[in-house]
């Protein structure tokens, strides 16, 4: 598999990741807001706003990645979101906060093993960074 | 246009588009979410379910918090001793009223911290921790049982008998943590009576310096699936 194929594979995988994560959060924003709130990071004034807009950003980024449009901003936003998600999980774990992951659902899922969520998000971030690195030097669009 | 300028503009457009779509979609929803929602105060929680007129008022109405009394040494572990990190009495700065005989039942599906602490000190309550067993082991309400929601079916039979005849109080951590509410619903669905949720229970309990313990659930080996 050459570099172009790897770049395409990681781009599509990243897009599908965000595509899978967004819909349920869009359809159940109140539950997602509850999930965000449980992290005890954002002020109350930003919780609902974040719950309402973040899933759409995931969706827009996924669409951009799939359509190979505005690749650099899309990859930047994708990795920025993954870094924030991972940092929030690690922060919650370190502070002993029990929460629903909210990663692929709108909330209400038992916390399960936080360590697993952190490892999983780390793998996602690795995928995102790989997609960004492989994209470097490639012409816009692929 | 410079590449960096284009990058910034495209990023801003993508973010702006997402914000616009999110807000527009929310506005179009029949059950749209308010942009800013006041968070509940960490004070005693208002009952949500319809109240029974025959029930007596909750303890929060009957006992003045200004008494600033501790539960003293009257607190007893609920069921089964665990690896308590404190003595049975709460820390000196505890402000929970003392236990009283003839404790009134809480009204609704939620219970205030004062009511929960009074039932705790009277030995009339079983606290059930809805968080992960690993988190539970790091610290929990003294005497609480661990019953993570995700392993409910597996762990519930082992503790069912311990709930009989007691007021069952479920808790997790965080104002919006739904695990304790879901756990309370699951318990009620299986016929357990007098089940109440102590919202944001772990944080409130610690803030008041009430008795806590560490270690795994002695009744069923931690409940971690």
Structure description:
The complex is a heterodimer of chains A (142) and B (225). Chain A contains 5 helices and no strands. With 142 residues, chain A is mainly alpha-helical. Chain A has one domain (3-133). In chain A, α3 (44-67) packs across α4 (71-94). The longest helix of chain A has 25 residues, at 3-27. The two termini of chain A are 15 Å apart. Chain B contains 7 helices and 6 strands. Chain B is α/β, with parallel strands linked by helices and 225 residues long. Chain B folds into 2 domains: 1-33; 59-213, Rhodanese-like domain (Oxidized Rhodanese, domain 1), CATH 3.40.250.10. In chain B, the strands form 2 sheets. A 4-stranded parallel beta sheet of chain B has the order 3-1-4-5, sandwiched between helices. Chain B is elongated. Classes of the chains: A mainly alpha (142), B alpha/beta (225). Chains A and B meet through α2, α3 and α4 of A and α1 and α4 of B.
Summarize the structure.
The complex is a heterodimer of chains A (142) and B (225). Chain A has five helices and no strands.
- Mean pLDDT across the residues of chain B is 71
What is the residue-mean pLDDT of chain A, rounded to a whole number? 84
Which architecture of the largest domain in chain B does the CATH hierarchy give at level 2?
3-Layer(aba) Sandwich
Radius of gyration of chain A: 15 Å
**Largest interface, and how many residues on either side?**
A-B, 44 and 40 residues
CA-atom Rg of chain B in angstroms:
22 Å
Residues in β-strands, percent of chain B: 5-15%
Based on CA inertia axes, which overall geometry of chain A fits? globular
Helix content of chain A: over 70%
Structural class, from helix and strand content of chain A? mainly alpha
**Could you state the order of secondary-structure elements of chain A as H and E?**
HHHHH
Overall body shape of chain B: elongated
Number of domains of chain A: 1
What is the tally of beta strands of chain A? 0
N-to-C SSE series of chain B?
A: HHHEHEEHEHEHE
């Amino acid at each position: 598999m050459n570099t172009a194929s790897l770049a395409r594979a990681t781009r599509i995988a990243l897009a599908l990741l965000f595509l899978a994560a967004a819909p349920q959060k869009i359809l159940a924003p109140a539950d997602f807001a509850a999930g965000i709130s449980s992290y005890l990071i954002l002020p109350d004034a930003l919780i609902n706003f974040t719950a309402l807009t973040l899933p759409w950003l995931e969706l827009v980024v996924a669409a951009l990645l799939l359509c190979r449009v505005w690749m650099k901003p899309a990859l930047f936003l994708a990795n920025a979101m993954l870094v924030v998600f991972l940092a929030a999980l690690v922060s919650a774990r370190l502070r002993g906060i029990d929460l629903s992951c909210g990663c692929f659902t709108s909330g209400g899922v038992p916390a399960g093993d936080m360590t697993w969520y952190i490892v999983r998000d780390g793998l996602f971030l690795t995928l995102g960074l790989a997609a960004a690195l492989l994209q470097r030097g490639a012409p816009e669009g692929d | 246009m410079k590449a960096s300028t284009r990058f910034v503009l495209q990023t801003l457009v993508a973010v702006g588009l997402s914000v616009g779509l999110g807000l527009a979609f929310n506005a179009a929803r029949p059950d749209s979410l308010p942009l800013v929602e006041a968070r509940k105060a960490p004070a005693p929680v208002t009952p949500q379910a319809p109240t029974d007129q025959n029930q007596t008022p909750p303890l929060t109405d009957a006992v003045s918090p200004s008494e600033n009394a501790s539960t003293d040494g009257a607190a007893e572990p609920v069921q089964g001793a665990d690896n308590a990190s404190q003595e049975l009495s709460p820390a000196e700065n505890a402000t929970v009223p003392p236990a009283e005989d003839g404790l009134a039942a809480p009204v609704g599906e939620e219970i205030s911290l004062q009511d929960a602490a009074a039932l705790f000190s009277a030995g009339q309550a079983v606290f059930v921790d809805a968080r992960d067993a690993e988190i539970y082991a790091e610290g929990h309400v003294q005497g609480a049982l661990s019953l993570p929601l995700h392993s409910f079916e597996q762990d519930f039979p082992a503790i069912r008998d311990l709930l009989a005849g007691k007021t069952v109080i479920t808790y997790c951590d965080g104002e919006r943590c739904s695990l304790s509410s879901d756990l309370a619903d699951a318990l009620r669905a299986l016929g357990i009576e007098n089940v109440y949720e102590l919202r944001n229970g772990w944080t409130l309990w610690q803030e008041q310096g009430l008795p806590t313990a560490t270690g795994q659930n002695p009744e069923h080996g931690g409940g971690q699936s």
